[in-house]
Amino acid sequence: MDIALEKASETNASLKITLTPEDYKSEVDKKLREYGRKVSLKGFRPGHVPASLVQKMYGKSILVDEINNLLGRTVSQYIRENKLQVVGDPVPDREQADAIDWDNQTEFAFSYTLGLASEFDINFSDLPSVTQYNIVAGEKEVNETIANLQQQFHSHTHAEEAAEGDTVYGELKQVDGAFETKTALPLNKVDEDYLPFFVGKKKGETFTFDMEKAFPDEKDRALATGAKKEEAADLTGEFSFTIEDVTRHEPAELNQEFFDKVLGAGAVEDEEQFRARVQEIIQGNYARESAQLLRFDIEKTLLDNTPILLPDEFLKNWLAEVNEGKFTREQIDEQYDDFTKSVKLQLIKNKIAEQADIKVEFEEVMEVTRQMVREQFGFMSGDNEEMNQTIDRIARNYLMDEKNNGQNYTSTYNRVYDDKVIEYAKTQLTIVTQDVSLDEFKAVAENR
């Protein structure tokens, strides 16, 4: 076998492969013997079909299959051993392949066009610092969160007259119809322009109102009348309502009972401790968003400071071919910049992984999948062996699902690989921590 790489430029090359009988004949002969033992042909006992006849019937197809398999292995091995930064797939010279005389040739020449990324290095010491934002929840965020919690853990009181946000309970009758029911009208669902009509109505008072104007949304009308949605659509016109009771949501008081309901019994002992704990929770909730922005900024820093040339024309042609007409050339041109960013970023991450000898073991993929199963099904971590075996079984079945050709394993593997590369990059880059308010963080994130 003769194999040679011819570089036309820094990003374009041809891989030329010449095969002689020594490269493929032994494997082809082996396959022919196997066929000879298995083939069933009228007039011959099984396994006794003459080799010449087997050759005539199956020789060419076996030769073509073996040559194609050999080429695939050879190209992949050459790229791997020579550490070529190949982008896209090697593209065979189809005209050359179509001109082969499979019946008479014994030596075969093939050529593949390769798209290459230019050589580059990652030197973390030359890269600028990256900012990690520590979101500090201020009085505004703490007060808003506590107010929402007070509403969430509200209590009920009874009032003599209706106010905005109340629920009025009583007897509802259609003035010109047969509909009549006991129901609760939620005033927070009443149309904003019509709400003043209800506010101030007193317990024991009877009044009439236009149902469709009060509840223009059919879902809200169904809620107010207790009717099915399809029936509520027909409930229009004047209705009378007699108020029997008015209930009001009162925000929970800032006391020990409220603290225990929110955080658990005895977690805090006074309002000062409660506010401090709420502040911690808010900042913890936004820590994930801060981590996502840090990851984005690390990737952007790597991209902006690592010049890589790509074979643009080769890649555009390759994208058009592999997508089989799904996208026009104009659409490919429009999306090409985003595509090249992802290609370059993956090349950079691969280079970092090579430099740092980052590898992903099967057990790491399994552990990430186990955690996903625990979160999805609400399983707790612990020493329950039976539960752990169940989690393991579900995780393995997910990863090894044959219906999607191992895509679950591949995507999980890639996620673990990506996380390990980013975590390593964090240890090599200069990370500057900056305290910001929530509003300041949102402004920074939006600008990104």
UniProtKB/TrEMBL annotation:
InterPro entries: Trig_fac, Trigger_fac_C_sf, Trigger_fac_ribosome-bd_bac, Trigger_fac_ribosome-bd_sf, Trigger_fact/SurA_dom_sf
GO molecular function term, any single one: protein folding chaperone
GO BP annotations, alphabetical order: 'de novo' cotranslational protein folding; protein transport; protein unfolding
Alphabetical list of Pfam families matching this protein: Trigger_N (PF05697)
SUPFAM superfamilies registered for this protein in UniProt: Triger factor/SurA peptide-binding domain-like, Trigger factor ribosome-binding domain
Domain spans labelled Trigger factor ribosome-binding bacterial: 1-149
The name this protein goes by in its record: Trigger factor
UniProt organism field: Fibrisoma limi BUZ 3
